[in-house]
Design a protein that fits this description.
single chain; alpha+beta; four-stranded antiparallel sheet; Nuclear Transport Factor 2, Chain: A
């Protein structure tokens, strides 16, 4: 028996209870790989299509930072004071790296610093830039 919906939602791959950080990162992976319009109940959930060939690389990076930051602020209430900072990547001209910094709000109302490095390449997001 796989367990209740709540059990399945709060367990990691090994079956242990997922940490708050893992839960946030998993949600952000889903959020940042979704395209706006793909979730019928939430048409603005996910990132907008940023494939604009008229933008320079610097403008594209700036627009992506803004879009990621706005998306996280709207759909991840456990994070406050979200900032998205571009990081250089040498692996590909088409990949972009970002550091997401924020304050993580615990269920008891306390906050603590939180950060995550990600690389975006098309519709793929991976951690550990």
């Amino acid at each position: 028996m796989p367990g209740s919906l709540f059990d399945r939602m709060t367990r990691g791959e090994e079956g242990a209870r997922m940490s708050e950080d893992e839960s946030i990162r998993l949600h952000l992976l889903r959020l940042l790989t979704a395209r706006q319009g793909s979730v019928q109940a939430l048409p603005d959930y996910g990132l907008p299509d940023l494939n604009d060939l008229t933008l320079s690389r610097a403008e594209l990076i700036s627009e992506t930072c803004s879009a990621v930051q706005a998306c996280i602020r709207r759909y991840e209430p456990r994070l406050t004071e979200v900032r998205v900072i571009p990081q250089s990547l040498s692996e590909s001209l088409f990949a972009m790296g970002f550091r997401i910094t924020a304050l993580k709000r615990d269920p008891d109302g306390k906050t603590s610093p939180w950060q995550w490095d990600i690389a975006m390449n098309g519709d793929k997001v991976r951690s550990g830039v």
